[in-house]
Amino acid sequence: MSLFRKLVLDFEKKALEKGIPEETVMAYLVELSQRERYDLYLHFEEEAPQELEKEFCLGMGRILNGEPMAHVLGYSWFYGYKMLVNGEVLIPRYETEELCANILNRMDTFFPHLEKIDIADVGTGSGAIAVTLCKEEKKCQMRASDISLEAIEMAKKNARLNEATIEFFVGNMLDPLIEKGIYLDVLVCNPPYIPQEEEMESSVVDYEPHIALFGGKDGLKYYREVFENANRILKKKSFMAFEMGWNQREAISQLIQEMLPNDRFEILKDMNGKDRMLFVYHNG
């Protein structure tokens, strides 16, 4: 058996050699051991339990080979909620937590007197956004859709895990909502927005679903689809919220002006100062 300190230092060195952030090692050990980080540091000079050491070494071997830590664990954390993940859904990103926070803020100011807010998360994937909004805003009547049946099954598991009441649909973009005659106060969409030819890290390309990554030649395919059909599902006073690529401000701004000339919009920066969130305000 090895000391916790030796285990961590050895794998931090290997991680650096592989170009993997060294903090991944401690983060994985914290999750695997189900102990607080400070507690591990207090016992750094003690021997790790044999079974934990074995599982840790096997898992770190997979991580060092490029597999995402969330896939090795089988889950990821998002907005304080545990989200099960696999190769059929995107691993929830920290940037998307900021999108959720801004949606919640705008719901408070946009609909101060509504007792029920009709909201849908289109292209829900793991269901991270839908679960978070449903749990954080009790007024939400939450729907979620995805073209992938496998993704919807994972999203349903996450809804059950977090005790979130969500109505799920399988179908392409807005089609299920249009077919069922659903009208929304808030439409949320984190669409695939990476241009088809853009190079990506191998850990993303090799392990995450391409259908959830690439948005056509210019990355804007799914924004066009939503903008084209939005008037068929939006209430008179409503808004849409999207995640976007950090370098798409000019192209998306032009697209909105062409397709939704009567709607006001704003593009927000994330904590790193990059353009990452789009809000479109509808007053039809």
From TrEMBL:
InterPro entries cross-referenced by the UniProt entry: DNA_methylase_N6_adenine_CS (IPR002052), HemK-like (IPR004556), N5-glutamine_MTase (IPR050320), PrmC_N (IPR040758), RF_methyltr_PrmC (IPR019874), SAM-dependent_MTases_sf (IPR029063), Small_mtfrase_dom (IPR007848)
Leading EC class: transferase
Chain ranges of the Release factor glutamine methyltransferase N-terminal domain: 21-74
Keyword Signal: no
Gene Ontology process terms (BP): methylation
Catalytic reaction equation(s): L-glutaminyl-[peptide chain release factor] + S-adenosyl-L-methionine = N(5)-methyl-L-glutaminyl-[peptide chain release factor] + S-adenosyl-L-homocysteine + H(+)
Record GO terms (molecular function): nucleic acid binding; peptide chain release factor N(5)-glutamine methyltransferase activity
Gene3D superfamilies, sorted: DNA helicase RuvA subunit, C-terminal domain (1.10.8.10), Vaccinia Virus protein VP39 (3.40.50.150)
Keywords: Methyltransferase, S-adenosyl-L-methionine, Transferase
EC code(s) of this entry: 2.1.1.297
Highest rank taxon of the organism: Bacteria
Domain Methyltransferase small: from-to ranges: 115-198
Entries under Pfam families matching the protein: MTS, PrmC_N
Keyword Transferase on entry: yes
Name recorded for this polypeptide: peptide chain release factor N(5)-glutamine methyltransferase
